[in-house]
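Hey, can you fold this one?
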Amino acid sequence: MKRCIFHYLHPIEDRPGIGSALRPCQMLRALRAIGYEVDVVAGYSHERKKKIRAIKKRIRDGVVYDFVYSESVNDPTLLSDSDHLPRHPFLDFRFLGFCRKNGVPVGLFYRDMHWQFPVYRERVARWKQMITLPLFRYDLRMYRKNVDVLYVPSERMGEIVPHSTTKPLPPGGQKRPEVLDCRASKAQEKGSLRVFYVGNVMGVYDLTDFCKAVKETENVHLTICTPQTSWEQMQRNYAPYLCDRIRVVHKSSGELQPYYEEADVFCCCLEVNQYTALAMPIKVFEAISYGVPVMISDGIAAGELIAREKCGWIVQNNAEDYARLLKFLRDEPDDVRQKTKNTLMIAPTHSWESRAQQVAEDLTNLK
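Sure. Predicted structure:
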């Protein structure tokens, strides 16, 4: 029997609303989908303590686990409880160390290093930084000591994380064979282009230039799906750039399939800075899972995958280049059709199951 341990510092949500909570939920499902019996160590520290005690007993009693797969959270490990108090400061690292000493390889997905960039220092009070920054560094020291393979979202991030073995493990998408079959027979409407965007509309996700380009390019239609609260905050800023070909909707992740199905192209355009340059947004892989080719900002790590797989287009972040590309895609449906074929071909290799299979192969090969 294939058996593994899934370790996560928060409760695992069945219907997560944000990307950071979606990933552990999908990876857990994917490990089970590829045939693993999974013992889960998740929840806040008092819950994890009970589960860790039970699993340690099983290991001592001779139960064999193929590996431990762990996911980090955005807070330092010691402050991961809901009230951020370090009740059991050594619990998790000692558990991972115990597993390694007993022949169970450990892999951990390290979400990001936002704390190393100016955006963190701009948004977080200095007194908080005095607590969190040393604890983030402590996490890295403990990973070096207790983790065999440190997974990161992109190769770029792997270059800056101090660990002997880092491997990229980008997000995945769900398997949608019936949707991909329909996409294969879908034809772009002649002389027209439909673009879909999902996400926030402020800060680094400001879409005003993109909306301006859409407004100035005839027969290009844009659907923006964004939280209603974000749109209410920013609607006045967008008003000069809207037209009857730009539609704004407020839908949950479970309601997006019709919008992906009608789209010819998915938009992932955002401001490029030191932090976003490392980004591998989950929504890029969701679009791929629907067979929709991606238009993405030049300089974003996910763009390297888009270019390598030839499943989309790289664009500079300004209204003129947006408009130039939109006009080209509207007038050259053969290019959109080819990129769509490429996307359909690679979609199964970027599923959550394929990510789980990678982890299983990497870690079992260490035994």
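The longest helix spans residues 126-146. Let me know if you want another pass with a different chain boundary.
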